[in-house]
């Protein structure tokens, strides 16, 4: 059974940084296999993908947030990370990791997704 578990959410001041973690229990990234993505959903808004990483290590970013986020994976234990910098109040959202079914991440169709971690950017 695959279970994605996020951690690291919390309150951050504007301009601050936060690192989120995702442990993908029962899922192993493989070369040629499905990526794992980070996505977020703000209250009353459609979810949007933030970043993706494939089994071969290739990474992709939503162009709207590319310069402020870094996705990475610890090959030792498969933990996924999202480092977020220069956070703004509009970054406030539930951030979750997911295994998308299709390469068009905007379809928001996932084979697996975690419950998410709340990140609130406020002074």
What does this structure look like?
The model has no long low-confidence stretch (mean pLDDT 93). Strand 5 and strand 6 form a beta hairpin. The chain is built from no helices and eleven strands. Strands 2, 4, 5, 6, 9, 10 and 11 form a seven-stranded mixed beta sheet that branches. It has 123 residues and is mainly beta. The radius of gyration is 13 Å and the shape is globular.
Largest sheet: 7 strands, mixed
Roughly what percent helix?
Answer: under 10%
Structural class: mainly beta
Span between termini: 40 Å
Give start-end ranges of low-pLDDT stretches.
none
Q: What is the radius of gyration computed over CA atoms, rounded to a whole number of angstroms? A: 13 Å
**How much β-strand is present in the residues?**
over 45%
The total of beta strands comes to: 11
Oligomerization state? single chain
Average pLDDT confidence is: 93
| Spatial shape | globular
Question: What letter string, H or E per element, gives the SSE order?
Answer: EEEEEEEEEEE
Number of helices: 0
